[in-house]
Amino acid sequence: MFCEVLTGRRPGHLVVDEPGVAAFLDARPVFKGHVLVVPRQHAATLAEVTDGQAADLFGAARRVALALERALPCDGAFVAVNNRVSQSVAHVHVHVVPRRFKDGLRGFFWPRQRYDSDAEAADYAERVRAALAASALL
């Protein structure tokens, strides 16, 4: 679907059109001005995105978030990526949603949890650090 927008086979309102990345309005926005930032080279998940593509992708997302504050009546932006779970389109995309204080959207879209203890939190952190080190992502 997003590849069709990028090639012009499907309509889309582009706001960023660069060699490595594009951004366009979400057809079903959370709030008007909701933008999707996508790598031009198809990648279904973050695992398929190279470091260079990630720099382009998140650099553009940052610029879009700042631009929304200048262009729209908003106080900031919600920036999010679904990776596999809740990912409605199998093409990596960053949501940049304009936000206003008291706009009715409450925090994250899912229930929050607490760690049972600081030790449990430390254990989770160590496991993630170990996985990063093992895959040379640190």
Summarize the structure.
By secondary structure, this protein is α+β, with helices and mostly antiparallel strands. The chain is built from three helices and five strands; from the N terminus they run H-E-E-E-H-E-E-H. The chain has a single domain (2-110), classed as HIT family, subunit A.
Describe the protein:
The protein is of the alpha+beta class and 138 residues long. Strands 1-2-3-5-4 form a five-stranded antiparallel sheet, covered by helices on one side. The chain has one domain (2-110): 2-Layer Sandwich (HIT family, subunit A), CATH 3.30.428.10. Helix content is 32%, strand content 18%. The chain has three helices and five strands. It has helices at 2-7, 51-71, 118-134, and strands spanning 14-17, 21-25, 35-39, 76-80, 94-99.
SSE pattern: HEEEHEEH
Mean pLDDT: 85
Cα end-to-end separation = 33 Å
Fold-level CATH name: HIT family, subunit A
Percent in strands? 15-25%
Reported CATH architecture: 2-Layer Sandwich
Sequence of strands across the biggest β-sheet? 1-2-3-5-4
The domain count comes to 1
What is the CATH level 1 assignment?
Answer: Alpha Beta
Low-pLDDT ranges = none
